[in-house]
Predict the structure of AAA family ATPase.
Amino acid sequence: MDKREREKLEDVLNKIQNTQSGMLGGLYGDFFGSGSNTGSKSSFDSRLDSSPVKTQGGMNISSGTEDPLADAKNALNEFNTKVNEASANGVAPATKTDNASSEDSSVPKEPEEDPMETLDKLIGLDTIKADVKELTNFVKIQKTRKDAGLKSVPVSLHLVFTGNPGTGKTTVARIISKLYKNIGVLSKGQLVETDRSGLVAGYVGQTAIKTQELIKKAMGGVLFIDEAYALSQKDDAFGQEAIDTILKAMEDHRDDLVVIVAGYTEPMEKFINSNPGLKSRFNKYIEFPDYTIDELMDIFDMNCKKYDYVIEDDTKQHVKELITQRKLASNGNFANAREIRNLFEEIITNQASRIAGIEDLKPEDMMKITNDDLFDKTGDADKKDEPAPSKSDDVDDDIDEKNGNNENSK
């Protein structure tokens, strides 16, 4: 190997070594030494310096070795060994993401809105608001009496929510979980949502395990079971196993677990009355009425404001008529706020098709909803006379859609 080739190879190997050292210092600084750029060497560098080598042009070459490629291979092997040792000892990489998380945790977070204020801001639901406030006040006073050493009336915190889809059951459940935390009857206040599929497994003995895992996640908060009557089907041993597991958890963890079951009114009543254990634990019902046409229109307006759409008064009146037609055509299966979400998405999809060919699009073009956007221009029949499809399987779409969010569909 002539001198020129050797110098070129030295330069390449130096770059490899520098890259290795930088990676070790940055990713495994705690294990090898300082990972910061302070000029100090990692222990890996120190070991290289203390090895019986001689340096030529910045490249480490073993004494008596004439093959620099062999030395490069040895250095790479030692590097890989150190990385494996670090991993085996559980050293976590000091990545930029970790650093960012650490910095973010030191930044004070904005305080969350008081859940009672959130409740008051919801569109409609006047009777629900009154029921929740009455219940919360009673639970709060009973806890205060108990803390003061006075006798308190035993209170069942578990609830049955009944009503059609899209009437706000999930969002109100989330608010209650936070209210219960604020008054000290729950330690965490989180809401864990599920349905039959989240509780029942396909093999004997597995349902109890699956249900227990979900209950563990809900401890300190609220377990919300949508369409709970699906657990009580004829000759359904798996569903009954889930019910038995839930009832036991409600008894064992009565001081830090709330269960709310929800669904259509008549099936829910049959479900609760079918089991003495359920009937004794669920004695508080909250009925969620359908929204009025005006309230549904308010929900539509909220979606427009949230996503920066503007709808003129004339077009707004046509939307109101369209909502009325769809509700009448639903034969009692109108999905309330969820239906409005579907309608909103249809309209803005039509709007996008209408303006897509405009070369010089202005913000006002992209914001404005017109009468033309109420119809499907792709060749299908007008959607104006067709009921919107109901997405009844969207468990988490409940009430905040009324406030422009995507939670307003139970």
Notes: Residues 116 and 179 are 7 Å apart (CA to CA). The domain at 115-288 is CATH 3.40.50.300 (Rossmann fold). The first strand starts at residue 53 and ends at 56.
